[in-house]
Amino acid sequence: MITAITGIKGSRFRRAAAVTVTAGAVLATGALTAAPAQAVTTPSIVAKGGFVMNNATGKTLYTKAADTKRSTGSTTKIMTAKVVLSQANLNLDAKVTIQKAYSDYIVANTASSAHLIVGDKVTVRQLLYGLMLPSGCDAAYALADKFGSGSTRAARVKSFIGKMNSTAKTLGLTNTKFDSFDGIGNGSNYSTPRDLTKLASNVMKNATFKTVVKTKSYKAKTITKTGSTRTMAAWTNTNTLLSSYSGTIGVKTGSGPEAKYCLVFAATRNGKTVIGTVLASTSVAQRSADATKLLNYGFAKIG
Length: 303
Known about the structure:
- By secondary structure, the chain is of the alpha+beta class.
- The chain is built from ten helices and 13 strands.
- The protein is globular.
C-alpha cells in the first residue's frame, strides 16, 4: 500500500516537473506574450443602454447606462406575464372571452396585435403565447382584464397595473414603474437594462414562461361564439435571435416612438446561461446585432 501511494506521489511529481519544464520552454521562446484567454475586448453597441449578467450567479458581465431609466416598449409584457403566472391557483386552461374593447384598443393605438376575434373563447395559456410571440396588446388587455380586481374593466386594468408595480417592488426593481399593461405608456412607463434583466431572470424560472418565450411559432385553436373550433393564423415570435443565434431561449422584443428598439435576450451554451437587455437601439436589425455582440462577450467572459 505504501509503495502504491509513493508511486502516485511520484507520478504526480513527474507530471508537475514536466509542466514546469514546458512552461519554462514557452517562456524562453516568448510564446506566452500572446493575449491570455481572459482578455476579451468589451464590445461597442449602438443601443443607448445595455446590461448582461451570468444568469446562474447574477454576476454583472457588461454595463452601458445600465441604471438609466428609459421607455421599455413591449418588453413591459414580461411583467404582464409575470403577474399572470404569479396568480394563486392559476388555471392555464381557463377560458377568456375576447371583448370588443380589446380590438377597439388595438385600432385606437395602432398597436401590435395577436388578431384575437371578438366573441372567441381563448385560454390563458394561449393568451400568454399571443402576448409574448406577436406581442399582442389585445392579449395583454385580455389578461389585465381577467386578472385585475374590480367591478368595471377600467378598475380591473388599474388593479392589474398596481400588481405589476408591487411585483417590481418585491423583486427590488428600484428604477422601474409601469403605467400600462403592454408598454403603450402614459408618460411614466419605464425601466432600466439592469432591472429588466433581473425581471427576466426571475420569470425564466417559471416553466410555462420559459416554454412560451423560446417558441418560434404557435397556432392557437380557439372556440368561436357558435361553439366551433377556429385555428388562428400562426403567431410568429418577434425575437429573431431564436433563429439567428444558437442557444437562444428568449426573451422579448420591444419598440415604440420613445423606446426605439429594445430586446431582452437570453441564451444557453455549454450549460451556461447569459441574460441581458438592450434599450433604445436604432432598428430591428441593430438591436439583434447589439444583443449578439453582448451574448458573445458574455459567453467569452464566463468561459
